[in-house]
Design goal:
Strand content: 25-35%
Strand order of the largest sheet: 1-2
CATH architecture: 2-Layer Sandwich
Number of strands: 4
CATH topology: Macrophage Migration Inhibitory Factor
Shape: elongated
Structural class: alpha+beta
CATH superfamily: Macrophage Migration Inhibitory Factor
CATH class: Alpha Beta
Order of helices and strands: EHEEE
Keywords: Isomerase
Helix content: 25-40%
Protein name: 4-oxalocrotonate tautomerase
InterPro entries: 4-OT-like_dom, Tautomerase/MIF_sf
Largest sheet: 2 strands, parallel
Oligomer: single chain
Pfam families: Tautomerase
Radius of gyration: 14 Å
Family: Belongs to the 4-oxalocrotonate tautomerase family.
Length: about 60
């Protein structure tokens, strides 16, 4: 049972998340040989002020 956790900046639409979950699920089925019913995708929306790269907050960009 793959559990796939996706962290991304907040603001993506449900349609985008739906499409991405479908694509991730299809990839897991094709590569891992599992069933679609066994694939779980969990989204965590993150504020830009809670994410930093190279020591710089994304909210400062």
């Amino acid at each position: 049972m793959p559990l796939i956790q996706v962290q991304l900046f907040e603001g993506r639409s449900d349609d985008v998340k739906r499409e991405y979950a479908k694509a991730i699920t299809e990839a897991a089925v094709n590569i891992m040989g599992c069933t679609a019913a066994s694939v779980d995708v969990i989204y965590q929306d993150v504020k830009k002020s809670d994410w930093a790269t190279a020591g710089k907050l994304w909210s400062d960009s």
